[in-house]
Design goal:
Length: about 450
């Protein structure tokens, strides 16, 4: 059989709520045309993020019931630790309430002002946590990634020559670690090849610099390696993931993505001294080292999720369904970041809405219209989010894991193509109110006439 089906059946459902275009018009006005300010119950399909929005499995819910809520030495922690160690090979596993808590702890220990931290592309919380220590976060994506239309199998790769040059120019002492984000979220959800991780490993080893994976979407990345990188088609996703982790000295992880958990994360390292410092910081704000800001039940849900996410049928369906959305809207004439990534499709709003200049926020205009027209919530990743530093004006449609079926995606395709048909009628927006930082969450907009 060639048809790829959702590899699950549905046991518990929640009804969607329909409201009229007129009602959505009123809600948009009230929300200052900022989709973060909407109530989730007014959204029909919520593609704001794939983070923390997964449907958990019956096995995960069963594990939740097994959760050991002891303050110290919880069995749930040892179950999680065993699973993380067998997958990553790292000796220390430090649970945190989510990915950014792992980032904050890692960078607080390793980074100082004058330091530079390279990455293929930093996610916004990663960048913010590095810069909070006074260090500088530098993106080193490969040059070809700047063209949204170029089709490369591993468009998320880090530019290894640029990394070498940076280390030689600045001196290895100023680079406390190098990060590689798999998959490259801010770069369009594009994968990183094993060869690239290995090449980065060689450079960092030569200079004595630790290499960390920002491993949020490690399973999706492993699947792309299996599909696209010579020599990996016969390996399982688990084997490929193990190899990816074996090249690094540690990782940060948000269990809200590739562990199907609604909350959670962890920080791993092989360095005993570092682990001790990190654990001390953990106790200060997150909690005792065997729960790190989570309930025992969360630790168990993550441990099970880390098994399920590497199942062949799941990953095959996951990547195929993202590609299905991308292919159908691209064939209908909507420019997307090519090729489709793992967890999301990114529309190039600057290319789609050529008549709306950057300073009138084409991505935001499109996000507003997609909600108004069809009740779909997406997120602008462009000048609203990054100001003048934005390289592109993108609209991200992130797909929650195991939540929507193919007919939901068909509805989404139809909605996007309908908006595309009358795209010339769309107008830009202006910002009328904004906070001093992370403005995309609370800014208020006004449509331009
Ligand atoms: N790193 C990457 C690559 C991420 O995508 C995220 C979160 C984090 C770190 C932080 O993890 O949310 O658990 O603290 N990304 C979400 C998103 C929020 O919508 O892309 P967290």
């Amino acid at each position: 059989m060639r048809t790829i089906i959702e590899p699950f059946w549905i046991k518990s459902v929640e009804s969607l709520k329909w409201i009229s275009v007129e009602q959505r018009d009123a809600l948009l006005k009230e929300a200052g045309y900022n989709l973060f300010q909407l109530r989730a119950s007014d959204v029909l399909l919520d593609l704001l993020t794939d983070s923390g929005t997964s449907a958990m499995s019956t096995e995960q819910w069963a594990a939740v019931m097994r959760g050991d809520e002891s303050y110290a030495g919880s069995e749930s922690f040892f179950r999680l630790k065993r699973r993380v160690q067998s997958l990553t090979g790292f000796s220390h596993v430090i649970p945190t309430h989510q990915g950014r808590a792992a980032e904050r702890i890692l960078f607080s220990v390793l980074c100082k002002p004058e330091h530079i931290v390279p990455n293929n592309t930093h996610f916004d919380t990663t960048r913010a946590n590095i810069e909070f220590t006074g260090a500088r976060a530098v993106d080193l994506p490969i040059a070809e990634a700047s063209d949204t239309q170029s089709r490369l199998p591993f468009k998320g790769n880090l530019d290894v020559n640029a990394l070498e040059q940076l280390i030689e120019r600045e001196g290895a002492k100023r680079v406390p670690l190098v990060l590689v984000t798999v998959t490259n979220n801010s770069g369009g959800g594009q994968p990183v090849s094993m060869a690239n991780i290995r090449a980065v490993r060689e450079v960092t080893r030569k200079h004595g610099i630790p290499l960390y994976l920002d491993a949020c979407r490690f399973a999706e990345n492993a699947w792309f390696i299996k599909q696209r990188e010579p020599g990996y088609s016969e390996k399982t996703a688990e084997e490929i993931a193990r190899e990816m982790f074996s090249l690094a000295d540690g990782c940060t992880f948000s269990a809200k993505k590739d562990a199907f958990a609604n909350i959670g994360g962890f920080l791993c390292t092989n360095d005993d001294l570092l682990a001790e410092k990190e654990t001390n910081l953990l106790i200060l704000t997150e909690g005792f080292p065997t729960y790190g800001g989570l309930a025992g039940r969360d630790l168990d849900a993550i441990a099970v999720g880390l098994e399920e996410v590497l199942q062949h049928e799941y990953l095959e369906y996951r990547i195929a369904s993202t590609a299905y959305l991308g292919r159908h809207i691209a064939e209908g004439g909507v420019p997307i970041v090519e090729p489709p990534g793992g967890h999301a499709i990114y529309i190039d709003a600057e290319l789609m809405l050529e008549h709306i200049p950057k300073n009138e926020f084409p991505g935001q205009a499109l996000a507003i219209e997609l909600f108004r027209h069809a009740g779909v919530r997406s997120v602008e990743i462009g000048s609203v989010m990054f100001g003048g530093a934005a390289r592109h004006e993108l609209l991200r449609l992130a797909i929650p894991r195991r939540v929507y079926t193919q007919s939901h995606i068909d509805y989404l395709v139809e909605a996007i193509l309908e908006v595309n048909e009358r795209k010339h009628k769309l107008r830009g927006v202006k910002i009328v109110e904004e906070p001093p930082f992370l403005r995309h969450f609370t800014a208020r907009f006004q449509p331009l006439a």
